[in-house]
Design a protein that fits this description.
globular, single chain, 8 helices, Rossmann fold, alpha/beta, about 270 residues, about 45% helix
């Protein structure tokens, strides 16, 4: 999608972090914006701030883990703007800790938001993107943890590996419709994801189930903490150039290379 001006972008988790920074970047490209977020106050503030810059924007409170709410998001998008061209499935949460300490509620909550949230976005918006016949692009936020297993992030890794796989499949399946696919795989960016428990529903343990990552583990897995603006610029470039993988940290490269080298080495046993 070389020319974004006048087209419509839908961004989940759009009221803060990477989502909001990407909204700002896309607004500069002349795109109309639909922000979705679970936090009404932050959503209202984000939409107002963007509108003050001249952007055409609406906010729709959405829990991406609930299919009916994502369907409502699509309905609101097409009712207001009549189209959608870019879908950024960005909303996400995290739980940290050893796999043996993860509860069933931990698994349910993370997979519901981080994996089902992306699936809901795809299954709801994709048929409409195909039907309107104007091409488009889908960006899904995964993580470095979707490419390489991280100690203490088992549940998160499972969900994010799924997001990477889905994004790769979309890239293959949607070429015929001129719809591109990108998957964002950052290490740590300056967002609120470490404070995910603030939005954790009571049925999944509530905020009191907050599991802070230890300083030692954080240092081991994080690399540099990048500002959101630079990551948002990478997302915009990927949309324009149809880049499948969006990697943000050079230091992640060696970990990824070692993983695939180990897979390749496994074939030696066939000899």
């Amino acid at each position: 999608m070389k020319d974004l001006a006048g087209k419509v972008a839908v961004i989940t988790g759009g009221a803060s972090g990477i989502g909001y920074a990407t909204a700002q970047a896309l607004a500069k490209e002349g795109m109309k914006l639909v922000l979705a977020d679970i936090e009404q106050g932050a959503l209202d503030t984000a939409a107002h701030e963007l509108s003050m810059t001249g952007a055409e924007v609406i906010g729709v409170k959405t829990d991406v883990g609930e299919l009916d709410q994502v369907q409502n998001l699509a309905d609101a998008t097409f009712k207001h703007f009549g189209a959608a061209h870019v879908l950024f499935n960005n909303a996400g949460v995290a739980v940290f800790g050893p796999v043996e300490e993860m509860t069933h509620a931990d698994w349910e909550w993370i997979i519901k938001v981080d994996l089902w949230g992306v699936i809901h976005g795809v299954e709801t918006f994709l048929p409409r993107l195909i039907a309107q016949g104007q091409g488009g692009h889908i960006v899904n936020t995964a993580s470095f943890a979707g490419l390489v297993a991280n100690q203490g992030l088992s549940v998160y890794c499972v969900a994010k590996y799924g997001v990477v796989a889905l994004s790769e499949c979309l890239a293959k399946d949607l070429k015929q419709y001129d719809i591109g696919s990108s998957v964002l795989c950052p290490m740590v960016v300056a967002t609120n994801i470490n404070d995910s428990a603030r939005n954790r529903p009571a049925e999944y343990g509530g905020p009191e189930r907050d599991l802070d990552v230890s300083p030692e583990q954080e240092k081991k897995m994080r690399g540099r903490v990048l500002p959101v603006a630079g990551v948002a610029d990478q997302v915009v470039r990927a949309i324009k150039q149809n880049e499948l993988y969006i990697v943000t940290h050079e230091e992640s490269r060696e970990f990824i290379r070692r993983r695939f080298a180990r897979i390749d080495q496994a074939f030696e046993s066939l000899a």
